[in-house]
Amino acid sequence: MTSRPLPSFVLPVARAVGSRRRRHERERRARWAHAATLGLTGAAGAFALSAGALTVGARVMARLPLVPVGRQRSDATVRAVYRDRVHLDATAETRRPGYLAIRQAGGAVHVRLGAVLGSPTPTSVARVLLAQDTPRPQDRLELGPAGTNGYYWAGDPATAHGLDFEDVVVDSPVGAMPAWQVTPRGEGDGSGTWAVLVHGHGATRGETLRVMPLLSELGLTALAITYRNDAGAAESADRMHHLGADEWEDAEAAIVHALAHGARRVVLVGWSMGGGIALRTSVLSAHRDAIAAVVLDSPAVDWQDILDYHAKALRAPRPMRRLALWMMRSRWGARAVRLREPIALAQMRPAFYGEHLRHRTLLLHAMEDRTVPPGPSAELAGLRPDLVQYVPFPEASHTREWNTDSERYERVLTRFLTDVLGLAVDPDAMALPVRDPASPPQERSSGLRL
Length: 450
Fold this sequence. Notes:
Elements: H1 10-63, E1 76-81, E2 85-89, E3 100-104, E4 109-118, E5 124-132, E6 144-149, H2 157-161, E7 165-172, E8 175-182, E9 193-198, H3 212-217, E10 221-225, H4 248-260, E11 265-271, H5 273-284, E12 291-297, H6 303-313, H7 318-329, H8 331-336, H9 350-356, E13 361-366, H10 375-383, E14 388-393, H11 401-404, H12 406-421
Parallel strand pairs: 9-10, 9-11, 11-12, 12-13, 13-14
Antiparallel strand pairs: 1-2, 1-6, 2-5, 3-4, 3-6, 4-5, 7-8, 8-10
Helix pairs in contact: 1-7, 4-5, 9-10
């Protein structure tokens, strides 16, 4: 059977249908290609945007601990003032047991407070009023904002404690560093031993005032130093903190100063970042044989742990945290945060200090520390139980061990120094703290933080 030819009108119709199908197919492919292009462009833009945000966030995070801190802000509110007590808004700091001072008007008003008496209202706390260091009638505590002073004492060694001292200058590699050189008045046999005192990040030499009466009683000369980028001290090339990686050179210069002015041996004492500086000095110093002991108060033993702890508290994503650390410790990353050179974070960890430590060390750490977590301190003590005496202080916040239990603090410190230095002192027979926190103010007492 032979096939019949298609009618003449069918072929044009078939061609037209096929043409439309091919056109629709081309349009469909074009739409998909366009959509894919838009999708890829959007994804690339989103990636670039997220990468940019990640970089900016990491840079801010890396710079936060490196920029020198300015003036203290108000962190307390006075609600009522009586002859024997003060009522404050209840906060973690104002509710904490022990001793605390508050100041107003930049230090024109400075009041020392004692134990917590109770809660007059659900949102306030009452504390004993022990003494006022600004006794003029017009310098009385007023209702309203105030700043807490965890150093407790204010002014300088003379206005705070009546101790004789000199304003001296320590010549460090970057320039002149002002220091207080305090002459001991006690009958202890610490003659020839100097204590180099190193304050913490954002703090001042006033942080060291709490231990000065005890050191003086034991016969030790105290040298409370400043370091680069402190107010009144020489600046580093980048005007940034290096978390102790470079500041230890200023503590080393203080050792040189002490040895040049009669010291035969030195005890390094540091708080917070100053503790990290003291620890780093003890393992890198060219005068290690002159270092008799190290005393650390809530020290920065592991900066990577500290930085990661605070980044997690800010809920920073892990990639941002890792990038921030890279910026601080790498040559290329350092440029992004305007550091002149990277920070040797790998050397500021318990493993490094455990390997290189060779001095007897008293390590005191606050268990309620939300600034420098105590874990690395306990780790270092575990690595070197032969050298490190670890003393935890329950209920104390960062560097507030003395404030929480001043008698215990000074007893522990006295026993340690008596043992290490061979002092002819009976720690158990001493009335401690040496300076009663409720002592009347000195004749020229001040509320200033110097």
